[in-house]
Design a protein that fits this description.
Length: about 150
C-alpha cells in the first residue's frame, strides 16, 4: 500500500520540513498560520487514509491546534515546532515539541461548561479528548504527547 504522503518528498520549504513515517508524519516548522493549516491538512489526509474515523480526525486536528496555539502563546510567533501525528491501534498520537523548557501547561483552571470563561478551555478539552496527556522535557525543550483513544468520540 502506498503511503498517503508518498507524493510529497521530504524536502525543506519555507518554514517547514516534512518527513512521512510508516503510520503518520513529522513536520518540522516555524509557527505561522500557513504552517498550522498545512499541519491540519496533513493530519486530515494521513488519518483518513489510515482508516481513522472522521470524528477522531477532527479531534486530532483540534488537539494539534490547541498545542500549537499554546506553544505560540508561550514562545512567540515563528517559534520552531515539531508536530508528529501517528495512527495506532489504540488511537491517534499527537505530539508537539517546542523549545521552551520552563512553561508547562497547567491542568487546573476553567471547566468546559463555565459560561463566563473567555479563554482557558483548551486544556480541559485536551483532558477530555486525550486523557493522560503528558509533558516530557527534551534536551532542547519539551514535548507534549497525547493519545486520542479510538471509540471515545
Amino acid at each position: 500500500m502506498l503511503h498517503p504522503l508518498a507524493h510529497i518528498a521530504p524536502t525543506a520549504a519555507l518554514g517547514h520540513y516534512l518527513t512521512p513515517t510508516p503510520t503518520g508524519f513529522a513536520l518540522h516548522m516555524s509557527a505561522s498560520p500557513r504552517n498550522l493549516r498545512a499541519a491540519r491538512g496533513l493530519t486530515e489526509v494521513t488519518l483518513l487514509n489510515a482508516g481513522v474515523a472522521p470524528d477522531l480526525v477532527d479531534s486530532a486536528q483540534l488537539v494539534l491546534s490547541e498545542l500549537y496555539g499554546n506553544a505560540v502563546h508561550a514562545c512567540g510567533d515563528y517559534v520552531p515546532l515539531i508536530a508528529e501525528v501517528e495512527a495506532a491501534p489504540a488511537g491517534v498520537w499527537v505530539r508537539l515539541h517546542d523549545p521552551d523548557r520552563r512553561n508547562f501547561p497547567q491542568r487546573a483552571g476553567v471547566q468546559l461548561d463555565d459560561p463566563t470563561a473567555e479563554s482557558g478551555r483548551g486544556l480541559p478539552l485536551m483532558d477530555y479528548l486525550a486523557p493522560g496527556w503528558d509533558v516530557t522535557l527534551t534536551p532542547v525543550g519539551k514535548q507534549i504527547c497525547c493519545l486520542l483513544p479510538r471509540g471515545r468520540n
